[in-house]
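Handoff note, outgoing to incoming analyst
You'll be picking up this chain. Sequence as last confirmed:
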Amino acid sequence: MGSPNRLIHETSLYLKQHANNPVDWYPWGSEALARAKELNRPIFLSIGYSACHWCHVMEHESFEDEATATMMNERFVCIKVDREERPDIDTIYMNALQVLTQEGGGWPLSVFLTPELTPFYAGTYYPPDERYAPHRPSFKRLLLAIHDAWTNRHDHIQEVGRNVVGYLQGMSRLEADSESLSDQLLTNALATLRRSFDATHGGFGSAPKFPHALELKLLLRLGQRFADKTAIHMTRHTLDKMARGGMYDQVGGGFHRYSVDDRWLVPHFEKMLYDNALLTTAYVEAWQLTRDPFYEQIVRETLDYVVREMTLPDGGFFSTQDADSEGEEGKFYVWSESEVSAILGSELVSLACRVWGVTAKGNFEGHNILFRARSDEEDARLLGLSLDEFRTRLSEAKRKLYEVRAKRIWPGRDEKILTAWNGLMIAAFAKAAATFNDSHYLEAAVRAATFILNHMRTPDGRLFRTAGVGQPAKLNGYLEDYAFLTDAFVTLYEATFEPNWLLEAASLADVMLTQFVDPAGPGFFFVANDHEKLIARTKDLHDGSTPSGNAVAVTVMLRLAKLLDRRDLAAKAEETLRGYRSTMAEHPAAAGQMLIALDFHLGPAKEVAVIGKTDEPETIRVLNAIRRAFRPNQVVAFHDPSTGTPPDLIPLLKDKSMVGGTVTVYVCENFACQAPLVGAEAVERVFGEQTSP
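Most recent structure output, in case you need it:
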């Protein structure tokens, strides 16, 4: 093995994984771009991420091959990008692939650019030979064909590139729709989700099946708004099936990326921080609506997994765990019947094998992915055990299996810290902490938020995108970094009632208004005004694996507008909703978060002010009642009058007091308040009512 290439100095695990390739890789930056112009060579841009299975396949087949590397090094300037660090570049060139091919994309993303960064050819995975010809050429044949075109058909390449760039630049132009923002958009979304719902296994569409956390959260709101039992059933059926399936880690907690089959049995085994954050929030909200203890169990197991396996000592969260260990996908997570028997012994093995479907034959390449076909109640009844005894024994079996599994060779972990993904997980911990009154989860949220403020922020209040462990943060924050973190801070305020979190949220919202807003139309750009110049300044038009930055910006600006009486935030949020009206109408399955924001906007959204003494049992009862209720379209503020006057930052608290020395709740709409609710019993009567069908 020769000397490592330039990627050895990067913070990204994905880039470091390519540091010993014979390919002369550059990270994205001025050195690579200047080299392409100097040599007048096309750029081969390869975009992926550390937990991407086919990225690793293409690396092994092509980028580790000396002959292929020589061909690449002699004819191209080769650039590697981690899409999780540079979603701006990934978004532009994934859109370019879709323009060039009229097909969906995926990773690895393989794009050929001019030295001016203009894309003229794009694809995804290419094999090392002609196994998929003629539809997909070998990578070596493609390299020769691109080089020939660059040499002999240069004018055609330039024309193709100009057309693609023109299309990309036009994609971000939105106009505020003059039609009303009505609940017809929500009923249309409900009808669309019903059509794609899998009534047998839950979820939407066919294999491969993704969790669709945003759509599940939307369905909870639609079920409540329209008193629609089917919407609630669709959500519960999906949540139940996923949490009992192989897509959920039955031993260690947490969700894998997606299921390769219809019934959630065989997952793609990578674990992503964002999936676990979004799904945790969905299960918290499902618990609020139903009080099903199974959903609380899944929340706690998932967050405990994140604390145990995905958290820095200083409090931030890592990004991903890989699907592979010892070169095999899923090896870390699967079991043989003999292993289970040896670990659990006669007392627990029968229960474990029956509950998780463990057999000598296995259900995955001769091994067993643990999978539950039945609920706790059904399994307890079949085994002749009380529910409590069943759960005690199953927990013991999980503990013993986890202890043995922890001694295996672990999958790789991408230890970069991403601001946006940390924002999602901070919000999940804060929401769970408030709902279940759990101080450990609140501590995890506060520590992570403090880590981000201390390590991922510039002195003038701007955000960085990423940092490595023990390495300084770098790269300008994107819209999603600001939006997701702002939303986390608002959620953290409602879990702690410390005004500083609202100050931080307001500061980040102001940066979004000054640096990301489109002065000529609705919405926010993906990158700030002072970001490096790329071939297009895009807007995210729909949700992807994570919610749209625009949609979360709208959501949190509506929340802040209620809490802080910020009319400017409300106005920009409504304008953006109007700009995305056609997306919500025509592609509701791709606009889950924006539809959630619309549901809040249509309301009626309530402002709840609680005035009481922090440590009094009556006050704690009141806050528990409010936080445990499924009322997504409300904001909550709190003040203890014994600490002095309420902060001017929160007008909602102004001129409100305890009635008769008892904790008092004011429920307001547009800052006009109903008669106050005095004492815990009055509050519990109102907030204890579940308005779901």
